[in-house]
Structure formats: C-alpha cells, structure tokens
Amino acid sequence: MGAFWQKRLVLCQKDLGHFTAILHDDSFDIEDTDVELGFLLDQASEKRITLPSSREMKVRQLPATPTAVTAIRLGIYINNHLTYGAIGAWIESNGYCFAGPPREVFIVLPSPGREDEAVVEVQFPVVKQSEAKLALITQTPG
What CATH number is given to the structural domain containing 46? Predict the structure, then answer.
C-alpha cells in the first residue's frame, strides 16, 4: 500500500477524500484477498493515477446503499474480528442480512509505528430479512 500513500501526497489533498477498502471475499485470508482500494472523492474528477507497478487507479461510482450497519474500529487489523463480530451479532439479532461487500473508510490513516491510532469506519450494507426473502421470491429465472 506504500504506493497509495506516496501518490496521495503528490496529488492535491482537496481532490481526495478518505482512503477506502472494499472487501469482496466471503472470508478473510491475508495471503489471498480480493480487496478494492481507493479514495473517496470530495468532488467530481476524471483523474487517473498510475502506480509504480504500472497499475492504474481510475474513478468509478461506488454503488449507494440505502441502509448500512456501521461501527468505528480503533487501530488497523488486530481487533478487526471483534468489530466484525459485533456487527454480525447486531445484524442477526435485529432481523437484517448482508446486502453487499463491507467497506472500510479510514477516517484517520495509520502512521508507521503508530497503527493503533488509526480510526476506521466499518460499513456493512444490509436489508431486512423480510425484504431479502421478498426479492428472492419475485426473481424469475432468466
């Protein structure tokens, strides 16, 4: 992720919002994870960022989610399982189900050697279980 931080310093701070990760896997495996990384934009932009690896970051619309369960996590990953567990317990006990991949928005970025000072908003898109069942019933085979 070093390339992200370097590019962020080069670009105008006013163009970039919070660093964000979208986790596309059903489970977390540190060695093989499908994760989308980028920045939320404070204003419309068509800028593309070429990373040292020649990979390119480009602007795309993040799909809106009408309802999400959120929690704040302090630090980067050491207590991640506690945050995700608390969110999962709340979702189950309140009659919701997952409706998309979780997002992590870094409100305060971690500094080297001070990772415990990071502030991350964890977001899980959700729908009421009754709405999810209704959507499954009304779908017709294609």
Answer: 3.20.80.10
Q: How many CA atoms lie within 13 A of 33 on its CB side?
A: 12
Residue 102 near residue 22 (C-beta atoms within 8 A) = yes
> How many domains does the chain contain in total?
1
pLDDT digits (tens, 9 = 90+) for 80-134: 889 999 999 999 999 999 999 999 998 998 888 888 888 999 999 999 988 776 6
Are 126 and 95 in contact by the 8 Å Cβ rule? The answer is no
Q: Which of 84, 106, 99, 88 is nearest to 37 (CA)?
A: 106
Containing structural domain, residue 95: 2-138
Q: Tell me the pLDDT tens digit for each residue of 129-139.
A: 887 766 555 55
